Amino acid sequence: MDGSPSVGRLTRDERAEGWRAPGQDHGWLNPLYERFLLRLLVKKELRVRYRGSVLGMLWSYVKPAVQFVVFFIALGVFLQLNKGMPAYAVYLFSGIVVVNLFGEVFGNCTRSITGNQALVSKIYLPGELFPWSSMIVALVHFVPQLLVLVIGALLYGWVPSPTALVAFVLGMLILLLLTMGLGMLGAALNAAYRDIENFVDLITMVATWLSPVMYRITLVKDSLGDSIWWWLYALNPLTIAVELFHTAFWRYGPLVVEGAVEDPSLIPPEGPFGYWWVGLLTAAAVFAIGTVVFERSKRRFAQEL
């Protein structure tokens, strides 16, 4: 024996410097331990997505802008939903950015394993890096939309406040936990059953219209009354996230400036943050379920692809 280290094992000095033996799996903490690989995957996804594109990142502005114009004309002007609702443009766009982020994170995460088939089946990479990199790419696209929303709200007299900040943070936390949980669950199932990604598109479309994005939630309450259907709608985490964004950029912004905040039909009776605790608990449960299913399925990804 010459005292040299065995293949695949690290010396004491290498361990002291933070080196790790290749192939170690840290489960759902892999994105934290493998930050360098995560950054590489994010850069790869951004380059691939905009390869050969003339507008590039400008599509982050074009798509929500077209959505906003279509919805505002069809619903705000033709159906006159903007009448009697102050700053309807801010109300509408603050909901649009939520459902857009929901749809992109959910859809991209679901397709993250099948979309990286060559990497998953040929080399070892922690499986969690793929849905997490997809989520980060979606956040990169979300930032320009958020910037447009902030500028639009400022034009209506919005001034940042502690209430608005807390509502925004809660809304983002609920939204990301929910979408990452659903996305990791979808990614695990989509590796075995390709039909799942088609269901994701349907769910995103339904979520856009069943969330209080283009209409006030009070209209739903008036229609459903105090039935079980109303409570299922009101306690949906996506509904709660949309309403928290409304609180952040609409209720405690333009409505205060225009003096309409006293209107009881514009402020939820349960307070400015609504049922945020229900949304947070539900989203956390979905995230935990999605993570567990993904962890148990990832070892079969190479064979299933």
Automatic annotation (TrEMBL):
Entries under Pfam families matching the protein: ABC2_membrane (PF01061)
Residue span(s) of domain ABC transmembrane type-2: 55-297
Record's keyword terms, sorted: Cell inner membrane, Cell membrane, Membrane, Transmembrane, Transmembrane helix, Transport
Localization per record: Cell inner membrane; Cell membrane
Main localisation: membrane
Superkingdom of this protein's organism: Bacteria
Family indicated by similarity: Belongs to the ABC-2 integral membrane protein family.
Protein name: Transport permease protein
Gene source species: Brachybacterium huguangmaarense
